[in-house]
Amino acid sequence: MSILSLKEISKRYKDETRRSERVLSHFNLEVERGEIVWLRGSSGSGKSTVLNIAGLLSTPDGGSRKIDGVDVTTPSQSLAAQTRRTKIGMVFQHSNLLPELTAVENIMVASVSVLTESEVIDRLAEFDLTSIARHKAKQLSGGQQQRVAFCRALVNEPLLLLADEPNSGLDDNNTNNVREALVAAAARGCAVLLASHSDAFEQIVSRTLDMERGRIG
Q1: Which of 196, 107, 214 shows the shortest CA–CA distance to 156?
Q2: What CATH number is associated with residue 17?
Q3: This prediction's pTM
Q4: Which of 215, 213, 217, 216 lies closest to 45, judged by CA?
């Protein structure tokens, strides 16, 4: 059974002139446990819209959406929040960490279980972040922030990991750290959906799907 199932998804947004513009049309996607699926395409091809719909941040105008076999096409606010918190991990171009909290505190507030500081530091150690565990997020480099964001996304051992341009602005070393985090997540049984126009992930993915104008080519 697929962890993520999107069938016949359509989505429209209004542009700055209030004109309705179709972003996705009859879009279909299945992602299974342990897979890394790469949505490849240029800016504006609809990749981020797919991830927002997969992450329950946006509601499709048509079609059906399931997470772990549960229909969440039009979920209640409580079901959407619970699903995001317990089944989905999300990493985007910018880390979206809480700047005034430390790396440890950013992980702790995202966890559904009560973790001690030492337990969180053990998690951060997997990303070679022990030395900055008690530093505020705003004091960290871009690469460090992104690795903390990965740690936060994986703290609840999600079934689905969504990564939108996760190496944007990162150097080769930090990009390699991102690749390793994606591979490790898939090895733990996560279904990984990656959206990127970069070829940096080509060697680690299970499948590559080229997107153009809201469709898979």
Answers
A1: 107
A2: 3.40.50.300
A3: 0.91
A4: 213
